[in-house]
Amino acid sequence: MKFFGAPSSRRCWTKALIFKEQTMNKPLKGVRVVEMGTVVLAPYAAQILAELGADVIKVEPPTGDITRNQGYSRNPGMAALFLSCNRGKRSVVIDAKAPGGLQALERLLSTADVFLHNLRASTASRLGIGFERLAPLNPRLVYCATYGYGASGPHRDRPAYDDIIQAASGAAGLTQSITGTPGYMPTIVADKTTALFVVIGIQGALMRRKATGVGERIEVPMFESMVHYLSVEHQAGLCFEPPMGPPGYRRMMSTFRRPHQTSDGFIAVMPHGERDWIVFFEACGLPEIMQDARFRDAASRARHINELYERLSELMKTRTTAEWVVFLERHAIPHSVVNDFQSLRHDDHLREVGFWQEFEHPSEGKLVAPAFPVHYQDHPDRGGLKPAPRLGEHTAQMLGELGYSTGEVDHLIRSGATLESTFPIHAK
């Protein structure tokens, strides 16, 4: 990777026009989002906003987002995790602590509709980018901060990562209720769940700004978001005061709620309503099971779901996976084979709906990414996002749009406040 400030590399107006064309019919067309995010939470939320049509400008330090170097990569600074969370963005390098850096960032934020970061409130204030400082500069700015714990609580300055929040929110404890040992979900569920709340919160604020003309501050904490998310079903008896029973949704907590072993593999099957259970056991030649008082109605099944799932689990061992697929399809019982990410790449349904999209990255070669899962009637093409940017790829372009001259950009580069990258390499 090489960085330099040659004026010939500075103007990429054609790219900017292409970017605007790709977002023509999307709902957030015309909305500019400035993201100062690292790892997954804020970057993933900002990528969704880009999918919705926003012009997302990712502001990075000279070292770049740390995910640029985490996991598989063909070239330095372009690892798979970064490529998966930063599509559709422009990368601008600004060091707010270097001479001229904060002024450049303020000038950029004066043009923004949304500012999104995942810095703790105290850190943002120390850097000079707290809400109180920025609101007078841009009264229409929707300022969204997302971090571990709400800023008004005693844990506000605690560092928080996905594993920490899974433990704090009760997610790891749910696993303990089933297995006896607390465990993490094998996905960064706290980051990604909170990211969805971020997108919801920003869109709500933009709707209100349309009516009032004034921006506002939004806070989206991971801890509270995950507790909210898990409480939907697991608050259970604690919904009532005094409590009517313990927390935990019984069906979710069954030790037999899992893909069931067949005679040669595994399959997921889920008779759910009255019709499914009756048809399933009758077709298996065991209608008497549904005559058992424990299983005759929904309330009884809920109380004895572990015993019912155990009967189901034992029965599934009697046929092969392929035999069960034919049987379950014939009787319209909800089921699925157990996929992994290798098999998903060749899934018939995903292929038919055009879910996996291949595209060429200018430095990384051919890449594959999932299509945005939300469909809009007047914008059927779910593709079109530009690939994740190289570090500083759009620095000079963006500074030029903000009115900086070539000489001023050169000065910022020499001072360490910014850099730009030509990234003159090709994928291996």
Unreliably modeled segments: 1-23
The structure class reads alpha/beta
Report the top-level CATH class of the largest domain.
Alpha Beta
Helix-strand sequence: HEHEHEHEHHEHHHEHHEEHHHHEHHEEHH
At CATH's second level, what is the architecture of the largest domain?
3-Layer(aba) Sandwich
Number of domains: 2
Distance between the termini: 14 Å
- Total helical segments: 19
Rg on CA atoms, Å: 26 Å
Strand content: 5-15%
Mean pLDDT: 89
Q: Strand order, main sheet: write it out.
A: 3-2-1-4-5-6
Give the helix level as a range of percent: 25-40%
Task: Please provide a written account of the structure.
With 428 residues, this protein is α/β, with parallel strands linked by helices. The protein folds into 2 domains: 7-229 and 352-415, Rossmann fold (3-Layer(aba) Sandwich); 260-337, formyl-coa transferase, domain 3. The protein has 19 helices and 11 strands. The strands form 3 sheets. Strands 3-2-1-4-5-6 form a 6-stranded parallel sheet, with helices on both faces. The chain has a 3-stranded antiparallel sheet with strand order 7-8-9, with helices on one face. A hairpin with a 3-residue loop joins strand 10 and strand 11. The radius of gyration is 26 Å and the shape is elongated. The model is unreliable at 1-23 (pLDDT under 50).
Short description:
The chain is built from 19 helices and 11 strands. It has 428 residues and is α/β, with parallel strands linked by helices.
Task: Itemize the secondary structure elements and their pairings.
Blueprint: H1 13-22, E1 32-36, H2 41-51, E2 55-60, H3 80-85, E3 89-93, H4 101-109, E4 114-117, H5 121-127, H6 131-134, E5 142-147, H7 162-169, H8 171-179, H9 189-212, E6 216-221, H10 222-234, H11 250-253, E7 260-261, E8 266-269, H12 274-283, H13 298-303, H14 305-316, H15 321-330, E9 335-337, H16 341-344, H17 348-352, E10 356-361, E11 365-370, H18 395-401, H19 406-415
Parallel strand pairs: 1-2, 1-4, 2-3, 4-5, 5-6
Antiparallel strand pairs: 7-8, 8-9, 10-11
Helix pairs in contact: 2-9, 7-10, 9-10
